[in-house]
Specification:
Helix 3 runs parallel beside helix 7. This protein has a 9-stranded mixed beta sheet with strand order 2-3-1-4-5-6-9-7-8. Helix content is 46%, strand content 18%. The protein is globular and about 60 Å long. The protein contains 11 helices and 9 strands. It has 267 residues and is an alpha/beta fold.
C-alpha cells in the first residue's frame, strides 16, 4: 500500500520522506518540490503562486494527473507521496496528516534555508505567512475540488510532530500503516482516524511531585506499539491549537510512563 503524506506547513514532511527513502527504501514523489520550482521559475514566492493558482488551474491539473499516473503505474512499489492532495487521488494508500503547532512550525521554517522563494523577516512574520498560506490553500481546495483539506476525517492517521523526533515519527507511521493494512476492508471503511498527539502539546509536560503522588495506584495499558495508552482522551481543536477537555489522568499516566503520544478524539 502506498503512503500519502500531507499536513501543516512546517510539520516536517520532507524530513520524514528522506528517512523513508534512506532507511526503508521508499521512493518519494513530492509535489511541494514541483510547486517551489514553478514559483522560482516565475520569480514568485510560494504564497504568490498559491494565489495565482486560485485563478489558473493548469498547475493543479499537472500535479493531479502526474500523481494518479505514478500511483497506477507502480502498484507494487514502496511509494510515498509528499503531496497536499495525494490522499484524494491515490486510490490505495495509507493517508497520513502530519500536525504541528503554528508556533513550532514558524520557528522551523524561519531557521530553515528555503531559498528566496520562502523567506521571512522574523519568526512572527513566518507565523503570519504560514497562517495566510494555509487559509489560501484551504480556500483554493474548497473552490476547485470541494474538499476540506483540514478535516481530519479525510485521513487514517493524524500524527503530531511538534515535540517528537522525525525518526520516531517515521517508526510510528510505519507501525500504524502495517496495522491498518492488516485490517479487513470493512474495518478500514468503518474506522475512524487515529489521532496521536504529544502530551506536551496538550499542556502536560514534566509532572510535579503532587501529580505523581495522585497517580500512585493507577494503571495505564499501552497500545501494542507501546507508543501511547490504549485509552482515548477528548480534545477540542481550533486550527492548529488543541485543548484537552477529557482524560487528563490518562495524559499524565502517559507522561509518567514515558509514552510520547496519547490517542485522541475530537469532542
Amino acid at each position: 500500500m502506498h503512503i500519502t503524506l500531507t499536513g501543516n506547513l512546517g510539520s516536517g514532511k520532507s524530513t520524514i520522506c528522506k528517512i523513508l527513502k534512506g532507511s526503508y527504501g521508499y521512493e518519494i514523489f513530492s509535489t511541494g518540490t514541483i510547486q517551489r520550482k514553478i514559483a522560482d521559475d516565475m520569480g514568485l514566492t510560494t504564497l504568490e503562486l498559491n494565489q495565482l493558482m486560485c485563478t489558473d488551474k493548469k498547475y493543479d491539473n499537472l500535479i493531479d494527473d502526474t500523481t494518479m499516473r505514478i500511483a497506477k503505474e507502480n502498484p507494487d512499489k514502496s511509494l510515498i507521496f509528499d503531496s497536499r492532495l495525494a490522499w484524494h487521488f491515490v486510490e490505495e494508500s495509507f493517508k497520513v496528516f502530519l500536525s504541528v503547532s503554528l508556533e513550532v512550525a514558524a520557528e522551523r521554517v524561519f531557521h530553515d534555508n528555503r531559498g528566496s522563494v520562502e523567506s521571512y523577516q522574523s519568526q512572527e512574520d513566518a507565523m503570519e505567512q504560514l497562517r495566510r498560506r494555509a487559509q489560501t490553500e484551504d480556500r483554493r481546495y474548497q473552490e476547485l475540488y470541494g474538499l476540506d483539506y483540514f478535516n481530519f476525517n479525510n485521513y487514517n492517521l493524524i500524527l503530531d510532530s511538534t515535540y517528537s523526533a522525525p525518526e520516531l515519527l517515521t517508526q510510528v507511521m510505519l507501525e500504524e500503516e502495517k496495522a491498518y493494512e492488516a485490517l479487513a476492508a470493512k474495518e478500514r471503511a468503518a474506522g475512524k482516524p487515529k489521532i496521536l498527539v504529544s502530551p506536551k502539546r496538550l499542556g502536560i509536560g514534566e509532572l510535579t511531585k503532587e501529580d505523581r503522588a495522585e497517580l500512585v495506584g493507577l494503571l495505564s495499558e499501552a497500545a501494542p506499539s507501546g507508543k501511547y495508552p490504549k485509552a482515548v482522551v477528548g480534545i477540542r481543536r481550533d486550527g492548529q491549537t488543541f485543548r484537552l477537555v477529557k482524560g487528563e489522568d490518562i495524559v499524565k499516566l502517559a507522561v509518567r510512563d514515558g509514552l510520547p503520544f496519547v490517542q485522541c478524539e475530537i469532542v
